[in-house]
């Protein structure tokens, strides 16, 4: 994956659960609107990896407005497995972090982003059995060196995007 940027570049890579997850559709929209402009202004490359096929990725990009040239489809969980991102039901979806993440959205802005994602939700099924239990994360790279790692604790409990922007822009 690090071949997507040069040794002197800073790159941020987000992993979403799957293209059919409404939390992930919300994340893609939030990245497009709030994060990509800030990173791009500093010359920082950003990518979103999600479970699904390349064909579904084009539909996902159209639905969410996320730029397709920065969207990476991982239909076989190769990168998720390599990074040992969390997977399961009890430790992820039924983790206290999921309702707390929803509560934080409600307090922040009435869960506007989540409500928008649910209103246009496309419940696309991941290509492989069990992939719907996969969790995401976020990594920041300076060249090939990983300088920040976050593994989502639970469904919908994404990394603090302001923190990611702060760390990444401090490296640029």
Short overview:
InterPro entries: PXL2A/B/C (IPR032801). The chain is of the alpha/beta class. The chain has helices spanning 22-41, 54-64, 78-83, 97-109, 112-119, 161-171; strands at 10-15, 45-50, 71-73, 137-142, 145-151.
Structure report:
The chain has 172 residues and is an alpha/beta fold. It has a single domain, classed as Glutaredoxin (3-Layer(aba) Sandwich), CATH 3.40.30.10. Helix content is 40%, strand content 16%. The protein is built from six helices and five strands. It has helices at 22-41, 54-64, 78-83, 97-109, 112-119, 161-171; strands spanning 10-15, 45-50, 71-73, 137-142, 145-151. It has a five-stranded mixed beta sheet. Strand 2 (45-50), helix 2 (54-64) and strand 3 form a beta-alpha-beta unit. The two termini are 19 Å apart.
């Amino acid at each position: 994956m690090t071949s997507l940027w040069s040794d002197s570049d800073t790159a941020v890579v987000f992993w979403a659960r799957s293209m059919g997850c409404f939390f992930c559709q919300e994340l893609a929209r939030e990245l497009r609107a709030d994060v990509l402009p800030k990173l791009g202004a500093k010359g920082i490359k950003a990518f979103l990896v999600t479970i699904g096929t390349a064909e579904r990725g084009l539909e996902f990009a159209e639905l969410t407005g996320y730029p397709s040239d920065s969207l990476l489809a991982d239909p076989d969980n190769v990168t998720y497995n390599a990074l040992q991102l969390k997977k399961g039901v009890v430790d992820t979806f039924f983790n206290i972090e999921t309702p707390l993440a929803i509560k934080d959205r409600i307090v922040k802005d009435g869960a506007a982003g989540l409500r928008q994602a649910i209103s246009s939700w496309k419940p696309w099924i991941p290509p492989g059995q069990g992939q719907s239990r996969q969790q995401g994360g976020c990594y920041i790279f300076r060249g090939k060196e990983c300088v920040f790692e976050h593994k989502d604790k639970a469904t919908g409990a994404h990394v603090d995007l302001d923190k990611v922007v702060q760390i990444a822009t401090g490296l640029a």
